[in-house]
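Quick log. Single chain, no ligands specified.
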Amino acid sequence: MIRVLIVACCLMLLASSLAYAVERELQWDDGVADEYEYLDIPSHAITYFTPVDWEKAFPVEVRFYGQRYGEVDDIRGQIVVWGPQTEKTATLEEHPDSLVVHARQQFALADVPATPGWFTVPLEVAELPETFVLALYTFSNEERGVKVGLTAPLGQPTHSGTGQVMSEEHIEESHVLREDEREWLMRIVVRSTPYPQEDFTSADLTGAQYSYYDDGEADGFVTMRKNGPMIQVQNDRSRTVDRIYVYAKVVGDWFDTERSGWIYLMDKDLRTIARKPLMYGSFANEPRWNFVDFGETPVPAEFYVLVTPASRLKAELHVGYDASSANQASFYGTAGAFKLWAAEAPEEQTNWMIRAHYH
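-> predicted structure:
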């Protein structure tokens, strides 16, 4: 019970201090190696919990502090993330409580520094369970291998141990926790989205190189299966568009879906100049600006930008709108045609949060 309370307190502190981070480094160590240990068949193992304020978490990389010694030749170590079976992992019908691999990555022991230092191993994209065990296998012995750093005793129950996690019900037997209150210097960087995303504020997307009509604050969101939001852009000359930014969010399972909407560039007669997919996976359940790269697409002085969400029941793309002022140049339509306003937003006061950036 004490251990659970300590873990909860640590996670609450971490969540409150980093509530708006896109990536977080999870750690139990204090950053100082007091001594080093090597292991042969058992793994250096440490239990972690995904951030409590995130809906999903995905591994980015593992960092451990250690040093190489002896002639390791072409020996390869391995990072493995163990966790409970889910619909998205392997399932063992005869052993439903057994832990399974959620992510893994090999690395060359020869790449680990010969002097003590941090070493980074990138991980494949996978959705992490709420509780997981991070295991480092180095297959070391007295003559060669990798020693991993340990903290001095930290005065509280440890999350670090050794062994191969085989079954959730026998986790204390297979993942043997240390009794000396030390922690491995092993950390994992996690991300709230499966792939890296640039963070933009509305203020970042302003200036002479942009065309837009919204004030940067969303007063609501709309979605639709057919048709979509459209803005008219009028310049004093032809220009070259390289990006279209959309402020949106996904309602539903944004990680598993491969759905996409579409962004169209059209001339004043609504003839398509170019179109690109707008991937749902570029967004998450929290609204954000994201863009589609149009390279260097020439557009006339007057053109239109159309976003068609193409929403379905399991995943819906919701586009933001600003209703703080009169509609300046926002429409509703499809490729090649205007449509009667059918969006659940006030037509007279809607300015779609769609912005064009010029090369």
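The domain at 202-358 is CATH 2.60.120 (Jelly Rolls).
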